[in-house]
Please model this.
Amino acid sequence: MAVWKTKKRVKKGDGNLVWQILGGVVVTGLIVGAIALAGWKEYGEPAIDPATFCAETGPSALTVIAIDASDPYDAVQIREIENEVRDLLGELERGTRLDIYTMNASRGALATRVFSRCNPGRAIWMDQIAGQPTEVERVYREEFANAINGALATTIEGGAADNSPIVESIRAIAADSLGSVDDDVPRRLIVASDLVQHSDVYSMFRSGVGEFAQFSLSSNYADAQTDLRGAEVYLVVILRAEYSRLQSRELLLWWEEYVRANSGHVTDFVRI
Model:
């Protein structure tokens, strides 16, 4: 069971909770396709889809970032979210797919995917196979990194929404992204949010944080229930002065129980 900590970052286990975010959307398909067909097949690795950088057999792992944009962020919070995400993605391995979602019901959808690509790899990993280390590194930095920066900027553009349907958004993401890969693919879900649920399904504004066990027995729970498919869940808790009475230890416990009841597990959290 996780507890509130005063450290800005908490790392557990073997460090696999820290991934790298040097990536992007615009793909130079001919280069990667040539590398895949001319080099990787020869060495017994699967061919690469030139449109996604993913192996044609599917990604080796999946990392999903979901950023709650139902309330606006100030300039400092935006910078901290960007830094936090980049730090968390410190070791994204080649072949891992990265999906980025914005959660903002006021934009007409519970969760909108703004990025989905696999890490194409760097020259240090591929030069012996591809024979073009300079070009591989250029693709990695320019085509992959720059597009992720743009995707992050899009997700963090918040507004003053009437509702904050976090559980419903996670449910949509689970169906759209976590369920899109093979069962044996490791999954990680990073949620950046104030975690204050407010919708017709469940409202912490109206009833307080409450007990998850009681909510799970209600008729509304069917609209929150999902399958996280064993995902490791990392919570980036955005502190807001106006929500201080709700952002307590009980809030973290509520989310831990929700994640566990839906076949995931909270591996850690950080407050910013």
Summary: The chain is about 35% helix and 15% strand. The mean pLDDT is 80. The chain has one domain: 29-271. Helices lie at 29-40, 75-88, 123-130, 133-156, 166-176, 204-207, 212-216, 249-261.
